[in-house]
Write a structure and sequence with these properties.
- It contains three helices and nine strands.
Amino acid sequence: FTSPSTPSLANVADVSPKGWKNFGYTRSTTTFDQVRANIQSGKDVPLIPNLGSITGDGLYSIKPLTPLTLDDSFFDDKKVVLFIDGSAIISADFKPINGYVTIIAQSLTIDDGPTELRGIFAANSISFNNSTSPLKIVGNIASLNGSISSLSRRARTIDPERPSTFMVFSPSYFYQLLSLLSNSGYDWKQIQ
């Protein structure tokens, strides 16, 4: 029942004139090669044969013939951005001691073994293998083409009060690696 003094909802403007659809927005994707070219611009990036060749802070590139298994001990006490021109697998916890790491790969697989990952992880494709163990990611994880497979199918944990995947965005990884992840540009003129 509505009285004449009560406005009818039919006469009120739509809450969303676009019908809750996002018109005019185009999502752009970025590729591994574009990210690598942007970060490496003007910097010396050695191509290393294995993770044991990481000797200190810096940018490194590796081109594995088979999927590269990432071991966090190679990154202890280092600030590293690693470009993996191929596939990488994380099969155990990845928590470098006093280390800050960015992994940028063609493809990245998170096996069912890890319960915690620390760092920035980006790849053209990211897949999570099924596991009933909860996974905590501290830092950030991003798919360069916008898709992360199997995350929505990750099995629920045995404890219903804990999420299957828990993300903790930590800007400290970006701050600690800022000089490695960014480019400095300048424009100058000589005045006489």
